[in-house]
Amino acid sequence: MQKNTKPCYYPEYLQLNKLLDAQHPESTKYGAEAHDETLFIIVHQAYELWFKQVLHEIHSILPVLSQSHVDESNISTVNLRLERIHRIQDVLVDQIDILETMTPLDFLDFRDYLIPASGFQSIQFKEIEILLGLKSEYRINFDKKSFYSRLNEKDRNYLMDLEEKPSLFDAVEKWLERMPFLEFGDFKFWNIFKDAVETMLAHDEKVLKDADYLSDAEKTFQLNDLENTHATFDALFDKEKYDELKTQGRFRMSQEATLSALFINLYREQPMLNGPFRLLQSLVEIDEKFTTWRYRHTTMVLRMIGSKIGTGGSAGHDYLRQTTQNNRFFRDLFNLTTFLIPRSALPKLPDEVIKAMNF
Amino acid sequence: MQKNTKPCYYPEYLQLNKLLDAQHPESTKYGAEAHDETLFIIVHQAYELWFKQVLHEIHSILPVLSQSHVDESNISTVNLRLERIHRIQDVLVDQIDILETMTPLDFLDFRDYLIPASGFQSIQFKEIEILLGLKSEYRINFDKKSFYSRLNEKDRNYLMDLEEKPSLFDAVEKWLERMPFLEFGDFKFWNIFKDAVETMLAHDEKVLKDADYLSDAEKTFQLNDLENTHATFDALFDKEKYDELKTQGRFRMSQEATLSALFINLYREQPMLNGPFRLLQSLVEIDEKFTTWRYRHTTMVLRMIGSKIGTGGSAGHDYLRQTTQNNRFFRDLFNLTTFLIPRSALPKLPDEVIKAMNF
Amino acid sequence: MQKNTKPCYYPEYLQLNKLLDAQHPESTKYGAEAHDETLFIIVHQAYELWFKQVLHEIHSILPVLSQSHVDESNISTVNLRLERIHRIQDVLVDQIDILETMTPLDFLDFRDYLIPASGFQSIQFKEIEILLGLKSEYRINFDKKSFYSRLNEKDRNYLMDLEEKPSLFDAVEKWLERMPFLEFGDFKFWNIFKDAVETMLAHDEKVLKDADYLSDAEKTFQLNDLENTHATFDALFDKEKYDELKTQGRFRMSQEATLSALFINLYREQPMLNGPFRLLQSLVEIDEKFTTWRYRHTTMVLRMIGSKIGTGGSAGHDYLRQTTQNNRFFRDLFNLTTFLIPRSALPKLPDEVIKAMNF
Amino acid sequence: MQKNTKPCYYPEYLQLNKLLDAQHPESTKYGAEAHDETLFIIVHQAYELWFKQVLHEIHSILPVLSQSHVDESNISTVNLRLERIHRIQDVLVDQIDILETMTPLDFLDFRDYLIPASGFQSIQFKEIEILLGLKSEYRINFDKKSFYSRLNEKDRNYLMDLEEKPSLFDAVEKWLERMPFLEFGDFKFWNIFKDAVETMLAHDEKVLKDADYLSDAEKTFQLNDLENTHATFDALFDKEKYDELKTQGRFRMSQEATLSALFINLYREQPMLNGPFRLLQSLVEIDEKFTTWRYRHTTMVLRMIGSKIGTGGSAGHDYLRQTTQNNRFFRDLFNLTTFLIPRSALPKLPDEVIKAMNF
Known about the structure:
18 helices; homotetramer; mainly alpha
């Protein structure tokens, strides 16, 4: 490490001359300054700073996971960076508490000046969504149309190009597909697992049929539900059925990737799978935290403007409410719990498989 | 204050002999102890302790707000206790983070032993819901049926009796109805306010029609939305229309109470209205925090059991997801923001009204 | 409200071109970029954005509290802004969780490039400290010397000028001194209060002497402590003694201000005192939250660099640890609890005093 | 998994009859119930429930770490349970926010009835302290004496017996001592590391001497500090010097354990060391969170009772403040950062060592 040649001064290092000269309320231009507009600007600027950091982490993770062989020490670095994203997301949520100290009346003092600006114009946030893997086709209709319409041409083109590049979703899917050890010599893991599942489902069916605390209507409903679970399990092991469900949007990941992810979830306690399991869990956590953030944000908007129109001319909260759950990136990973079976029913891995997994 | 006659010993004061002897995992009875069942028991016990405290506060607030005259120092005490409930609700949410350290596989180790027990059997939580004002008729269908069906007779009768008694919702409604100063000599507040609203809506309409950044379809959609807002405003000042919307479930509070609440929201900065405004806001906050709790709880259940059946034989998460938003107690107060207008458009109160408000 | 003449575009409104072009790691200049330096820059920039917002609020509060008459609706606005500062402080603390995802090894990768920059060069933070009322003379020795030495001349002069202007501490002190109703006709509040205090202290002395669970040494220690409390109480009502203790640094506020603050604390439930009490409590809370922040920050630094020298060449954490408790602004308000007596022992205010207080 | 033979009912499963019948305010016995005493009881009961859960986890971790060979999947389970303890500690801290809604005046309403009960009589908390490794000899004087004096004989004996048994500190120390690979064939790790350290310290010395932004006094101070760091480094590799410092209380862990812990910290990115590193970090985090809890608790007590005597007749807050930092269990692990050197200066491990580490 080379010595620095020029003493470093904190305000210059942080470029505070730029940073602290970037708050210019519109209300000042049109007459009296609305006291709370500064807060509105600063909270959104803080969001954008953190979005930049999230992008910095995603951009560092992507090439690592895209390598044809990802070794364990890399998984460990990826996990640390994903966990940093979690902490940032926590702060994104906490910042809503600050914004909520602004009352509706205070917001109405400058709302009109911002028309038609809108949070939907945050290029960095859209960049995060695209890089994590939210394809246009997954968006709800309203979102599909308006996602690009409110942007200027440069911003729109930038994002449309980005959609063509591999996302974190793609990288994770490929990394999972490359995972070995699902068939090992005579050991056909999925055959044994299928038997265990059948036993579990039969058990659940018996529990339901014996349940005298349930009304007949409830029983029928539950048994129906169980049948659906059964069908989904069947599809999991049948490429044709799986791909059909994938076309219908029930799955987004390939069958191979889903099976690998399930295996990692089932045998997470194997040292070799610790890192991969934390990685999958971290991805679900990112979804979880963005969902919480969208939810809190929706409620805040609703509290702030009621059913009034948003600054971008959109029926603000309704749209937001719908995206809350829809825009998950790693839904398939989240849904895996449906396929878990009790540890006691889990096939024991043969010693040579365990040895092979730990090299 | 009398001196205590017998020295107090911490473990006895807290009755730890009872408290710490109340954790008996079912798994132990049926074979090997599942390590995580203790956590499952303790987290729910901690919930129940806090529910008891919330009930203690609600029971102390109810008689105060039910008096024919509630003076300001009482409002202040009520506010402190409502804010205590908020802090407790924060901890209820935080406790989910603890429960989430249990993995689905760990839960499957003892889930079957708990059938058909279920969180829906928490009498204290139902008691809170009823005391805050959630009538059976407001519940979603699934909830309506199952709310009582899983309880033993004693518990069911206790709660059904409770439904007959006045709730916090009822007390708040009556307290708002009793509020004075909406008509004061020649000053007819609502007439002036109606004019201000008309001006604002006309302004919003013009903004929308001029909005060349909106497509025609979007414009039509937004203008339609604006018309609905207009209609709701009209109903606000027309008893007949209001009561019709009330019958349809659009409002739950009486017109008089809604108008008082709106007035308090509009003139919250008047010293006399500070306390009442904080009170209304605190009630909305209680809703908000329970909604967050239900939401986090739903997601946790989904992550824990996937689409599998819940311990109570219910399709756990689906039910929970629907109650998340539906079971708000003070929806009317939350929706008031729709009726706010910019401070600059707000009618100035005549000096004699202000003087009268501050006695 | 005038219509805006030019459509507002979110990225321009937030001046993202400046904001997002202000992150330039030193490590890049000296060779390979250290991945985590971006985080280091962004977390400090986010701090500075929030400091700007805190200053915005303080600057709006100061003139209000400096008026010769502060009416209740102003108190209410001040309280809302102080509570906004609390929420911002919560986020300042939460941001430490993000920074802690950087490991010591990662920090060592670029630490040397930052020499001698240091958080002590945050002009805005020093501005906050000065505006809240931290005089140079209250700082610990180390801090006194180094507070200005690391700044360039312009920054130093700016802050030294600021020290000459009235702070929030000064404004609050004067506002408290102006408070009426401590003597009212025949009612000499403090005489009655003194009697109540004597009774309480006599009671405490008896409790201690009767305490057979205490050893003789412990008893002597406690009784000594009680005597000190007695002496401080005496000083409270004796201008000469009070001013002596003030010279010694035991008090910072004038006797008149302290007595007003005590009165507000004792009779907080009086409607008229609700606002003032929340204001005093909010000031203590600001102290509390900065103390927590300093404490968490110290621990983080210690974990990051051990007992190594800080980037500013200072023995980082030792200094920080000492300022944690020392740099409270409203110590006197915090210490008031010593002078509280049980509600049952509190003199009842005569009706005419209560009436006068509520006008 | 066997089917349960008897349907499970939620209120019975949680033994709510015991749990919810354990709140009996003393104030009720002596006259009028103090409204807030219920809160005081419930918050402490919630603490005790969580302490029980923490003990449940510690008791499950201890035997695992005490095995002569701890395999990686066990480390992984231990880590999950330590992280559960973190989440519980977060809730312990959050609960203080609830207690702080009680005002000093409200507490004074029932404080006297509780004399001489005190939180120092929480057997479970002392049990946690002892099990984690806080020996009597490490306590500050005040704590040493009073730790046992306020307990009844049964409780005292129980804890004194516990002090004789191996603690988590002991188990971790032994586990670290057993760690292999510090010498491997020709590769003498610590010799190479010592050279790297000398280079780093020489670099730091030069930086300081060149620092024209430091006054002479500051330079002397810093250089002195650097010399101390040098001496501690020397001791690290010299058994005799190390043991001397250990006698003086500068270290608590054996030299072998400290060196293993340092190695794990330096090469944490090696897959084989991931688990062990997270384990060490989790232990430090437990300390950190208890320190935060003690600190917040102290401040809360101070705010509640000022410098008045605590319910246990102790000068409450002074004692608490001193224990805040002193009662860390894993101080040695926390202090390791002093011995870290920049990653670029770190000796590269020979391939055969890396291969051996990963088996």
